[in-house]
Amino acid sequence: MTNESAYRAVVEKIITRGPYGPYAVARSDELGSITFSLDRAVWQEADIPEPGVYVTLSQIRRNRGGWRAKHGRYVMPSDEQQQSATVRQPATVRST
């Protein structure tokens, strides 16, 4: 299953010595736990995130171990502006 949407998540823990290298585990309200590698091919930032930091994860895949993100970065102020601009107002109901 593939989902190309981006998800906001909070980093819960950092594993510096995983079997395939360093990785992080974050929690999203929509998907729950999402794991992502801290390899430069996946994590797009120069420094490693800390627990409690908000990140944006995308190119999400599900495997037997759970959700995995193939792209990650910090949440930026522009992400906040984009989200508020795309919030839809409730449709008005016209009475006839």
Which parts are unreliable, with pLDDT below 50 for 5 consecutive residues or more?
none
Estimate the mean pLDDT confidence.
87
Total beta strands: 6
SSE arrangement, N to C: EEEEEEH
* Distinct helical segment count: 1
The end-to-end span amounts to 44 Å
Q: Note the overall shape.
A: globular
Radius of gyration: 16 Å
Oligomer state of the chains in this structure: single chain
Largest sheet geometry: 5 strands, mixed, barrel
Order of the strands making up the biggest sheet = 2-3-4-6-5
Percent of residues in beta strands: 35-45%
Which percent bin holds the helix content? Answer: 10-25%
Structural class: mainly beta
Characteristics:
globular; mainly beta; single chain; 96 residues; 6 strands
Would you kindly provide a brief summary of this structure?
The chain has a five-stranded mixed barrel.
Give a verbal description of the structure:
With 96 residues, the protein is mostly beta strands. Helix content is 10%, strand content 44%. It has one helix and six strands; from the N terminus they run ββββββα. Strands 2-3-4-6-5 form a five-stranded mixed beta barrel. A hairpin with a 3-residue loop joins β3 and β4. The longest helix has 10 residues. The chain is globular. The model has no long low-confidence stretch (mean pLDDT 87).
